Amino acid sequence: MADAITELVVLATPEKGDVSALLMRPDGATHLLVFGHGASTNMRHATMQKIAEALAEQGIATFRYNFPYSEKGGGRNSTETCVATIRNAVKAAHKAAPDLTLLAGGHSFGGRMTSTAQSEQPLDGVKGLVFFSFPLHLPGRPDTKRAEHLVNIDIPMLFLTGTRDALAELDLLKPMVERLGEPATLHLIDTADHSYKILKKTRTSAEDVFAEIARVTKGWAETRL
Q: What is the CATH number of the domain that holds 196?
């Protein structure tokens, strides 16, 4: 399968200027995921790359982008700036591939900011949200405050969480997803941590963790959207 990779520029906000973006579109793509990175990484981080490559194998294109702070340095941007960046990335992604069904989400922080944006005002054209390791809480500080805004989202949501994720204790995550009801789907990844590192000796599945993530995302997109 040949993947067309295009480097682009997106206006994050008028105040913060442009940020880099990367469109990976495989032959026969059916969906396009607007894909935000984690808090301390960027769009080219190894985890982002592995997820994007695995999704491409399943016919899902990705539109990765940087938040302004990861592009230009400095402290993390405000929620307002991150949300504005996401909205502009969604618009740019749709313009770049208007024929593909649009999804949005991200790894950790990128997913949480995307859900925040959707909860405040629906993202234009987005049919579903995908959360790769949704950061329910800080390590060692379990609560569900970060998930309170999710009740305001009525489009399908997929949570892809490792059973060893220190930022999403299962006794809190499972009831939270259940309370969200019909829009929410949780898929647990055996032995994976927040970065999807697995315990090879105790993992029951021989499937590559990123292949599993992509396969589940494709199946969810085909049946829930």
A: 3.40.50.1820
